[in-house]
From TrEMBL:
This is CBS domain-containing membrane protein. The lineage of its organism: Bacteria, Bacillati, Actinomycetota, Actinomycetes, Mycobacteriales. Residues 243-299, 323-380 form the CBS domain. It comes from Gordonia westfalica. PANTHER family: TRANSMEMBRANE PROTEIN DDB_G0269096-RELATED. InterPro entries: CBS_dom, CBS_dom_sf, HPP, TM_HPP. The chain crosses the membrane at residues 55-73, 79-102, 109-127, 147-173. CDD domains: CBS_pair_HPP_assoc (cd04600). Gene3D superfamilies: CBS-domain (3.10.580.10). Keywords: CBS domain, Membrane, Transmembrane, Transmembrane helix.
Length: 383
């Protein structure tokens, strides 16, 4: 009995504790610095936009709450541009309307917030700081009496738009995405999960998560979970167990004609590029060769096809000019679990396996499918 009570108490304490997923110090600094920078720049925008600074209602407190969402939780549906701009603006309109009509503060303030919430829900623009915008209006009846509905335009709408624009620029500069992803049937492999947008929306509504997660992010999470589960099915396999070892490689000085002949002879879709000592330099995919032959950056001569094999200075293009040097790579002991997302989402069909900087093998999508099939057939739990 005592153990059961202790377990319940522990569970209750955990439910009111911090999020189980810690945030890195780098992300905390990114969000904090962005909020400070964004609010500072919004203050400058408002100070030069004709807002009457004597009222004290220009860089209003709700902007701080909006900054928390826009810079600290940019993937939240509550932080998206429509929610932020429309949510704050209609809340300001509701707050001003109530403030101009209702005199007693004990009634005016809660009615302003309630009207703002109804307006945000009706406009599908729920943005929690909007409640604070309406409350700010309710707390300042004299100033609102002087400003009227102009309060909704400036500082609220102008300041929120500026904050959203700054958040989008800051996200791009710091490696985040804002606004968040839209659902796209042609999205990455981890998001192609066999469910359409309506079905994903229904799942979010069923579990009351529409305000916490977007449809595209839900698809990405489900796809990532499926890949992780497939990796578990692979068991202890590592890259060294499934990689192709008898490699056909090319040197960095191989011409595009040489590459075309190699692709035609061996029927490969990719060719690793290595030095004479076996040091890995990159991979040439058939797509790179086709793109170079079809298009535009090479010198055009009387023989158009030959012209596309030349640089602008007339020298012959080589593998070093068209190889991909940014694709992911693995080590011989890299788990197959880690290879799955590389091949699913990186836009390539082969992952080089390196021992130091030496190429020792390559894992293709075919290699991985064959390994997973063998593992599944060997599993006695599979019918």
């Amino acid at each position: 009995m005592a153990v059961r009570v202790a377990d319940r108490l522990r569970g209750a304490l955990q439910s009111v504790g911090p999020s189980p997923s810690p945030v890195s110090l780098r992300e905390a600094v990114r969000a904090g610095a962005g909020s400070a920078l964004g609010l500072g720049l919004v203050g400058l925008v408002l100070a030069t936009s004709g807002v009457d600074l004597r009222t004290g209602l220009f860089l209003i407190a709700p902007f701080g709450a909006s900054a928390v969402l826009l810079f600290g939780a940019p993937n939240s549906p509550l932080a998206q541009p429509w929610s932020a701009v429309v949510g704050n603006t209609v809340s300001a309109l509701a707050g001003v309307a109530v403030t101009l009509v209702v005199s007693p503060g004990q009634l005016r303030i809660p009615l302003a917030v309630g009207a703002a919430v109804m307006a945000m829900v009706a406009c599908r623009a729920v943005h929690p700081p909007g409640g604070a915008v309406a409350m700010t209006a309710g707390l300042s009846p004299d100033v609102i009496g002087a400003l009227g509905f102009r309060f909704a335009l400036a500082p609220v709408a102008v300041g929120t738009i500026a904050l959203v624009v700054l958040a989008a620029v800051y996200a791009r500069l710091t490696g985040r995405r804002y606004p968040y992803r839209r659902f796209d049937d042609e999205s990455s492999a981890t998001a192609r999960i066999g469910l359409d947008e309506n079905e994903l929306t229904d799942i979010l509504d069923r579990y009351s998560q529409s305000l916490n997660l977007g449809v595209a992010d839900l698809a990405r999470l489900i796809g990532a979970a499926e890949l992780q589960a497939a990796g578990h099915r692979a068991g202890p396999l590592v890259a060294g167990d499934v990689m192709s070892r008898g490699l056909v490689t090319v040197g960095p000085d191989s011409t595009l004609t040489d590459l075309a002949q190699m692709f035609d002879t061996h029927r490969f879709t990719s060719l690793p590029v290595v030095t004479r000592g076996g040091r890995f330099l990159g991979v040439v995919f058939q797509l790179h060769l086709v793109s170079r032959l079809r298009g535009g950056s090479a010198q055009r001569g009387s023989d158009r096809r030959f012209g596309r094999l030349l640089r602008r200075d007339g020298t012959v293009l080589t593998a070093a000019d068209v190889m991909d040097t940014t694709l992911p790579f693995a080590a011989p002991d890299t788990p197959v679990t880690a290879l799955l997302p590389m091949l699913a989402d990186s836009g390539c069909d082969a992952v080089p396996v390196l021992d130091g900087d030496l190429l020792v093998g390559i894992v293709t999508q075919t290699d991985l499918i064959a390994a997973l099939a063998r593992q599944t057939l060997a599993d006695p739990l599979v019918d």
